[in-house]
Structures are given as C-alpha cells and as structure tokens.
Write a structure and sequence with these properties.
homodimer, eleven-stranded mixed beta sheet, disordered C terminus
Chain lengths: 338, 338
C-alpha cells in the first residue's frame, strides 16, 4: 500500500510532517509518497525503506479558495495528490492543508462514490468514548437525503475503522423529541427511523461528552460549530485546571501529586491524538489532517489512511449507494437493501 | 415593582421556588405575586412583606405543546402569568416551565414589541467572561432580519443589564472569514457590518470560552446546541476533575489542598448562578428560569427580572424598532437611526 502525503500545506514546516511520515512508513508497513518541492522532499527518497517523492511546485494556502487546486494552482501539492489517486499511483492521500481545496480536488479529480451526492468530513472526537461527527464542516447546507447518506457512511466508518459494533447513530437536534429540530432534521428523522441503522433518535449536545451516540449526524455548519466548541472547551478546561493549581503553595504541591493524571487528561483532550478526519464519499481514501499537525499527528493520520484503505468500506459504499441509485424514487428512505 | 412568579411549572416542588421568591422579595425590595394552586400559595400571602398570591388551576407540563397555554390550558400558571402582565397587574413574569408555552403565551397575550418579528431567548453563559446567546432556542429557523434584531436586542441587554460597555457582537459561524457560513448568516453579516453595533465579525465556537464576544448572534437551533454543549462540557469537566483526584492516596490528599479552588470552579460552571434567560422582544419583561431551578436560581431569576424591568430597554426596543418599521424598506440594515 502506498500513501501519498502532502507535506507542504500544513501550518508546520514540511520537515515536521515528513518526520511523522517516515516513522509511519517504518512502523505500519506502508510506502509513503512525499509530495512537495524538489529541494524539500528529494533528500528523503529511499526506495529500500519505501519512501518515494513526487514534485509539486506550488501550495494552496489556507487563504486560497476551495477551487484554487482545480483552477489556478493545478500544480499544487494537494492537486498533485489528487491526480496520484486518480491515476492509481497512490492508494490513499493525506493532507494537512486547506480543507475546501482538498475536498474539491478529491471530488472533481478522484470523483465521489457513485450515488453519493455530497462528500462529508467525518471527524472523530475523543471524549469519554470516541464518536464521529458527520458532517464536521464540508456542507454548511444540506438536504435530508444528504444527512441520510452521512449517517450510513459514518456508521460504516465507525464499525469498520473505529471498531464499534452496531454503532448508535444520533441526529443532532435542539431536543430529544421527534418534533424538535428544523424542517430538514425532522424529515431526516423519518428517513433514519425507517433505515436499518441503529438510530437512537435526536440527541442533544449536552449528552455528547458522556457518549450518547457513536455517529453524530448533522449539517457541516452545526457540526463544525460542535467540533470547535468541544475543542475550545477542552482548552478552557486545561487553562482552568492550570490556574487552579497555581493558586497557592499548597495547590502547587498538590500539583506534583496529580501531575501524571493531569498529563493523561491533557493527552485525552489533545485533538492530535486522532490525527485526522476521513473525507467520506470520495472513491479513494482521503484523510484531512489537522492544519497544525505535528509529526505525531501526521503519523496518526497515516495510520488512519491505512485503516481506511484496508477497511473496504468504500467498496461497501459503492454497493450500497449504487443499489440505492438504481431504485432511487421508491427507495430513498433505505439506501441499504439489506 | 411587582414580579409575578409561576411557582408551579418547574421540575422542583413549588415550595422550593417559593423559598427563593420570598428571599428575593425580602432582599430586592420588590413585591412578588406567587401564581399557583390555592392550597400551595395561599399560606404565604402576606401583604406587609409584599407577598401576594394568584390562583391557577392547571399546569403546562414539559410534554405539553407550545400552544397549550393559549388553547386547552388557559387557566394554567403560565397563562395566568401572561394575563397578569397584559392587565398591568404585574411588571414582570418569571417561569421555570415549558419554554415554548411561556414564549407563545407571552407573544400572544402580552404581545411583542412593535416592529419585532420574533421573540428570542437570550441566555447568559458564565465562562471566563459572561456572554449572551441570542437566540438560545426559540427560533430553529430564522431570516437575516430576525438575526439583526436579535443582535440589537442582545447588545442592549448586555449593555444595560449585564453592564458591558459597547458590547462586542459576534455572528456564530463555521469560520471567521466573511465568506464562511450559510446563505442566511452571510446576508446577516452584511447587515451587521453596516449597523451601528460593535460588530466583531464571524466568530468560531472554539473562541467562545475565552470571551471572543459579549453577544453571540445565531439561530435558535445552533444557539441551543451551543448552550447545551457548553453545559455538557462543564459537567464532563467536573466529572473528569473528580476522577483525577480520586486516583491515589496522594491525589486524595492533594484534593484537600485544592478543595476551595475546586468549589469555586464548580460554582463558575454552575449554570444556576445566572438564574434565567430573558425572552427578548416581548413588550413586558419575561424571564425563563431553568427547568430544574432551585430556590437560589429562582432568587437570581427574580433579581434579573427586576434589573430587566428597571433597565428601560423594552422602551428602547420600541423606539428603535418602531422607527425601523416606519422606514422599513430603505432602513432594514440599520434599525437604530442613531
């Protein structure tokens, strides 16, 4: 298996991301294909160790538009990555760059799975129990049919990649009752209830940290706000615990007794632990790593890409949604014919 | 000033809420008008202490529909409360019951401020710095004009009741850039930019705990999810800190050193501290207290109702939005003519 890694487009220097990629190649038995400027990547090429390089002359920045990788920057690292996937020169792609550019390059060059209308970001949130948010930001506006597909994709990912049996699918809403929500979520509720998914109904955000569901279905606007609020509250928690222990000489001594536990807690709150987020609905595995990924996050993201590729779920998406497309008019409520 | 208190419709027994109301009457120099069943409230009547009672024979439960207070239960405590406001027998109303029923009873019986199209819940969240979310749940779907009005009402409330000078108004979105958001939030962005509010642009939820804005403008669906997630993460934080200190004999000793600080932290995370949420846009002050309000929360909610009534902001809403209504077609972007 060969995993293409866009080493140019994160917030950190390419060397940091390359460090993670080299460790991943060593530990996970995969080949890595470093995409970047010749002067940056060439010196790492080492076929014996499964390290390959591919040149890309420009970089899509966080300020560039989502379509820049297709239009003016078609020689950028993310655009080259998408072409490698398309041409079967790589089995999966990992990028820490501009999310919109990654999704549009993947959607347009690699294409979506037949029958899937919108690709979605599935971000795994590590709280008491990990759960996956689909969509975590790709689609600010959605239709019920999109949400239903997000639910199916998220559930398969949770089962096959995260190892959660019969994952509980929850629909994010402003109340648990069926009548709560927007017209879009209310219609989606009906579809999910009739599907073969393990649908647990509307879920409220207050119950997310305690693990009310394994797959959280929502539009990308709400999902993004949910994800970033969990992140922000985690940081608030770290700050608050810090200032708690700095209060007096006694609390400072107490800190020494709790240091190990506090570090463990920090690690749990450290989003980098889960590396990156799958772009669900693309016909090849694509992982969006955090913009601020360090070597460790990139290492984890490459592991995720490998698991994603090995899981066979893209084939499963194809089977499920192609069948659905065939019977679209009468079968929209249950894309899985199982 | 006389504040009507619906003592029947919270999760706790009426006696608990009455306890808070009696303390409030004693401490804040207001009269309270306890609304409830005769056998519950009559024994507390004491005109010398400013305690009055009003009978209501039924209660709108959390399961009842929003319109039940208007239709089948027009003798319920919340419906009676709304009529007291309408007939000028009370200057403000506090209820811990069904939010939808409170808002519809208030909107229909007391009426909205002229020119305001939707009443909104303004919930004050106590993190590093308090900020107010408008709308925190009344309107799952909104138009840009509604969001603009929520911004104006929230800013006035923040200034006059919370005492925040020139409050920073943020629009909740999935990115700080102007181009981020849904079609509704993007249009709202333009209106807010042209208004005389201290608009700080789109804000991301990850920056909320650190106090990125004083007024958070959003639809009631997203606002409700944001509010409940902050609440849920606060509980998660409490649980996690607890288990951290239970780890070993040393961390248990450390707990003793930090006990006071931990209690302070808990208090900060305790939503009850802020008592309740104003229903903004009604022509009389209405405060929604938490469903699970205890005596202390009710006490705080009555203080809020008093501050709300004394602030004069409802008159200010009337001036601002009536002017706006007069020039509606050309002036929708800046309802304040100042």
């Amino acid at each position: 298996m060969r995993i293409a890694v866009d080493v140019m487009s994160g917030d950190n220097p390419p060397e940091e991301l390359i460090k993670g990629a080299l460790s991943a190649a060593n530990d996970f038995g995969v080949e890595v294909l470093l995409i970047g400027a010749s002067e940056v990547v060439d010196k790492y090429a080492d076929e014996d160790k499964g390290i390959y390089v591919k040149h890309a002359n420009t970089v899509v920045t966080m300020e560039d538009s989502a379509l820049s990788a297709i239009k003016e920057k078609d020689d950028s690292s993310v655009a080259v990555g998408a072409m490698l996937l398309k041409n079967n020169e790589a089995d999966a792609l990992v990028s820490a760059g501009n999310t919109g550019a990654l999704i549009s390059a993947a959607s347009i060059r690699v294409r979506r799975v037949k029958g899937i209308r919108r690709a979605a970001i599935g971000t795994v949130v590590p709280l008491d129990k990990p759960f996956i948010i689909v969509d975590a930001g790709a689609n600010p506006e959605v239709l019920p049919e999109n949400l239903l597909q997000f639910a199916h994709m998220g559930a398969l990912y949770a089962e096959r990649v995260l190892g959660i049996k019969s994952p509980r699918v929850g629909l994010l809403s402003n109340g648990t009752e069926e009548i709560k929500g927007t017209p879009i979520t209310k219609e989606t509720y009906g579809y999910l209830k009739e599907s073969d998914l393990n649908f647990v109904g509307n879920v409220e955000s207050r119950d997310l940290p305690a693990g009310i569901c394994d797959v959280l279905v929502c539009d990308g606007f709400t999902g993004n706000i949910t994800l970033k609020l969990i992140e922000g509250m985690g940081k608030f928690m770290s700050r608050t615990i810090n200032s708690l222990f700095r209060h007096s000489i006694w609390t400072k001594i107490a800190y020494l007794a709790c240091k190990k536990e506090i570090k463990k807690l920090r690690k749990r709150l450290d989003a980098g632990e889960y590396g990156g987020a799958p772009i669900l609905g693309i016909s090849k595995p694509v992982i969006k790593a955090h913009g601020n990924s360090d070597a460790k996050s990139m290492y984890n993201a490459i592991r995720q890409a490998k698991q994603f590729a090995e899981s066979g779920i893209i084939q499963e998406f194809e089977n499920r949604f192609r069948r659905n497309t065939a019977n679209e008019s009468k079968d929209v409520n249950s894309p899985s014919a199982d």
